[in-house]
Amino acid sequence: MLTKILLALAILILAAILIRHLFFAFPAQTSADYASDTPKFDIRRAFEGPVEAHGMIYGPTGRITSRFRAIMRGSFTNEGGVIEEEFDYASGRRQTRAWNIQFGPDGEISSTAADIEGTAEMEQMGNALRMRYRLRLPEDAGGHVLDVTDWIYLMPDGTMLNRSQMRKFGVKVAELFAVMRPMVEPAE
Known about the structure:
By secondary structure, the chain is mainly β.
């Protein structure tokens, strides 16, 4: 009898955790949640020219495991574009990535990059951009493949706030927060 009660209690706890995760946590957001928010996010405008980012990565315990500064430069045509990223980590490590972006006929956006498994799916609506992709970490970081959900929110002054969660087997293993601002290049 006690075993059945404990099993039922365990199932209820797991169900509550799953319900919280699906309906009341970061992954429960949808692009439609931001459809009426302004200013309107347009990846072409947001990343055209240099953008500077400062951010932190939190590990599974919630402690900061890494800090970084990044410069991003985008260039676009009607069919697609490229966003090149250069990361400088507080540890001294450097990393680069080039997002090769394709625009679809009905507003779809997809992208590839050297460390992305398959294709990243992007959706912009209202003031937000959501990205979902599988990121292959560098070998010195374990070489794991993580499921990533990125949300970038455009603020009225042009600042973008980026929050990302990285999961392995559905369990959150890292989270990123960054502030991104368009850079003003000096006049020549």
